[in-house]
Amino acid sequence: MACSFSIENESKTNAECFERNYSHARLRDAKAHLAYVVKCLKDDGQLSSCAVSRIMKTINSFKTLQAAIPGFEEHAKMSKRARKILSRSLEGSLGFLSRDDVVSHDSFSWSQEFLRAGNSTFERRALSAIVYEQTKAACINGFNSSDSQMYKISSETIEKMQKGTIVANRLPPLISPGPFYHTEICVIEADTIDAAHRLSLLGYNPVTLNFANQEKVGGGVIRGAHAQEESLFRRSSYFLGLDIQYNPFLKKQMKGHYRIPEFGAVYTPSVTVIRGTEAEGYPFISPYQLDFIACAAYDIAQHPFSHSSEYVDKTKVKIRMILRLSVNTDHDSVVLGAFGCGAFKNPVSLVAKMFSEVLSEDEFLGQFRMVTFAILCDASENKVQIFQDALEHLNF
Fold first, then answer.
1. Are residues 260 and 287 in the same domain?
2. Cα separation values, 266 from 66, 132, 173, 215, 249, Å
3. What is the DSSP string of 217-270?
4. How far is CA 366 from CA 30, 142, 267, 335, 363, in A?
5. How deeply is 227 buried, as exposed, middle or buried, from its count of CB atoms within 10 A (0-12, 13-18, 19+)?
């Protein structure tokens, strides 16, 4: 059922409901606002300008919004332009949202708005949240690519991905008669999806590590957050495989509650990538498929370890799990990265050192043709160079 609102009904009903429900502006309330907005988008409804204006006015009245959603600007500094961006976007006037079943996207217009947003976290997150809602609709209804081709992911492809998604926990050490490959290790400045796609085009069979949130599928993608897992969800059908709302087979394995085991991971094959990068404006592209392993790093920012030795030992167990699952699912290559070194604040140099030490363990020698560390540039610290220094001595 479409979620549409008339100005008259909205101003007296929905806006009042919003003001009543969000009177205390707690964290869960702030998240619920965005859930409400994206529900309207998911249901293919269009909010009136009045509706959006009232909603944004309510949000701006939250004196604790900055504390409620880390990274959002203080309410007093939210620009009028942010409200206009959301209003225009929800109404589809910029081409971000299609009124048709088949989704279209103007990547140039989106990029221009994203650039104009500058350092406004609110505006950028609003624009990114809209991209994710587009992606969800496109994976179900089909989409028009930037080269004017119409694509639709088949139900068979989705079912293959969903049925193939497995939860693995504490796999035993690898047992093999000896090394199979001369392993090449490469550290590059690149997006993980793009790095894996290049390997696939070169004849490798890669699996890509998703730096997952342990208990919240997709991390903060619904809020427009910009970590690695959120990017994967915005660009592909991954949500249909990893989100138990959509994948009944995974829901059964997880007993109805999404949580990645501390020393486990979730393998999802045949994820269909349908969009380009953020820098390109998230254009719809000719689709291709990749396989993923979701594993959660420790959130040091929220739960620091009392003893560094415990952190190292436990993180190495996670890394071994990732590599064992990669081999057990018949992949000859793996795309890794600065695991947990973003919002979770894992120390870059130590994470690089742990990967180097685990990859040198006997059970992993010769198991991969290629191990790629794809790391996006960080202005505050040179993660690429740190990983290169830690791994340069490895030669299998």
1. yes
2. 33, 21, 18, 12, 12
3. TTTTGGGT--SHHHHHHHHBSHHHHH-TTT-HHHHHHTTTS----TTEEEEEEE
4. 49, 41, 22, 16, 9
5. middle
Which strands sit side by side in the sheet containing 264-275, from one edge to the other? 166-169, 264-275, 284-295, 206-211, 333-336, 370-374, 184-188
Evaluate whether 285 touches 145 at the Cβ level (below 8 Å): yes
Number of domains forming the structure of the chain: 2
Residues 179 and 321 in one domain: yes
Domain shared by 304 and 197, yes or no: yes
> For residue 32, what are the domain limits?
7-144
Chain centroid offset of residue 335 CA: 16
Spatial CA neighbour of 40 closest among 105, 124, 136: 136
Rounded Cα distance between 8 and 223, Å, is 28
> 33 with 82, same domain?
yes
Contacts of 294 (CB under 8 A, 6+ apart): 210, 212, 229, 242, 260, 265, 266, 267, 268
Per-residue pLDDT of the chain (396 residues; tens, 9 = 90+): 333 323 333 334 444 443 334 333 334 444 455 555 545 544 444 444 444 444 444 444 443 444 444 444 433 344 445 555 555 554 454 455 544 578 889 999 899 989 988 887 778 888 898 899 899 999 999 999 988 899 999 999 999 999 999 999 988 888 776 568 999 999 999 999 999 999 999 999 999 999 999 999 999 998 889 899 999 999 999 999 999 999 999 999 999 999 999 999 999 999 999 999 999 999 999 999 999 999 999 999 888 887 889 999 999 999 999 999 999 999 999 999 999 998 889 999 999 999 999 999 999 999 999 999 999 876 667 999 999 999 998 876
